[in-house]
Write a structure and sequence with these properties.
Elements: E1 9-13, E2 24-29, E3 42-47, E4 50-56, H1 71-80, E5 85-94, E6 104-106, E7 109-113, H2 139-151, E8 156-158, E9 161-165, H3 173-181, E10 186-188, H4 191-200, E11 204-213, H5 226-250, H6 276-282
Length: 287
């Protein structure tokens, strides 16, 4: 990796968003990490005057299921490039009547219904850390994303709980109605462990949830299918890219935030027990 390549803002694109078309002077960058290779080569360029790094979450050609996405490698690679603000774009189903297909939701809470198959922490094997996830999405970045979305004319909903299931199958009607009864706003498959790892990496993280369907809680023929998700995402990609460009132009990458101090007081391993080998392995993440 060239020492000249770096980025301030990161974007992880979900189903349907495999490239960031407005990036100027894009350059593909290969970044190796202690957690393997990212989903795809990182593409770094300029967007609205900011240096932005983009990764296709499911890989080029959509090759990774939600469970298979190498989330640790993706987050670590972006952190290596200097990213401190990260936006995850997600295709989601709506669990609320007012969240209509074609609209955006900027969630403020997270429910994890994955099944433990996904590595969800950078730590372990000699170094223990417990980060706070009371507010899983950065409030500052959320507000910037919301303001930008509304400036583009998009219908953007402020807040809502993102319920993350394991996948790759969609929910049953009974499950969908159960999640709705819990008060969840949208259902998807990829915000976990992405949000958790971003906090451990001390990144500001926010989600742009693109509503594609009403899942299957409503009676009628509108149950979610892969074809339906793909069709709506094709229509929404241009909107998503415009919102991302507007967001990038309005962000202050130097702004301090509690997210950037997430590990302060979170590491429980005694300093004298942190060996040079551990410091080398976790050096990028340690305060």
């Amino acid at each position: 990796m060239s020492s000249q390549i770096g980025a301030e803002i990161g974007v992880i694109g979900g189903s349907g968003l495999y490239r960031l078309g407005l990036l100027e002077r894009p350059e593909r960058v290969t970044v190796s990490t202690p957690y393997g290779e990212p989903s795809a080569p990182v593409v770094v360029g300029e967007l609205a005057g900011r240096r932005v790094a983009f990764i296709a979450r499911h890989g080029e050609g959509h090759r990774f299921t939600p469970t298979e996405v190498p989330a640790r490698a993706n987050i670590y690679a972006l952190r290596t490039l200097g990213v401190r603000q990260l936006i995850g774009v997600n295709a989601v189903g709506s669990l609320r009547e007012e969240f209509s297909p074609g609209e955006l939701v900027v969630p403020d809470q997270l429910l994890d219904r994955t099944s433990g198959q996904r590595p969800s922490t950078f730590f372990g094997e000699g170094l223990v850390a417990h980060v706070s996830m009371a507010e899983p999405f950065c409030p500052t970045l959320r507000h910037g994303l919301l303001a930008a979305a509304r400036e583009t004319g998009a219908t953007a909903h402020d807040g809502g709980t993102y319920l993350c299931i394991e996948g790759p199958r969609f929910a049953t009607r009974a499950e969908s109605r159960l999640y709705q009864s819990w008060g969840a706003g949208v259902i998807g498959m990829t915000a976990v462990p992405e949000a958790l790892l971003a906090r451990e990496a001390q990144l500001c993280y926010a989600g742009m949830a693109l509503v594609t369907d009403y899942d299957c809680w409503r009676d009628g023929p509108e149950n979610v299918t892969a074809d339906l998700v793909a069709e709506v995402m094709r229509r929404n990609v241009d909107l998503a890219v415009r919102v991302l460009a507007q967001t990038a132009g309005g962000l202050d990458p130097a702004l301090d935030c509690a997210c950037r101090h997430a590990l302060d007081g979170a590491i429980l391993t005694a300093p004298e027990a942190i060996t040079p080998e551990l410091r080398k392995r976790f050096g990028l993440l340690l305060p």
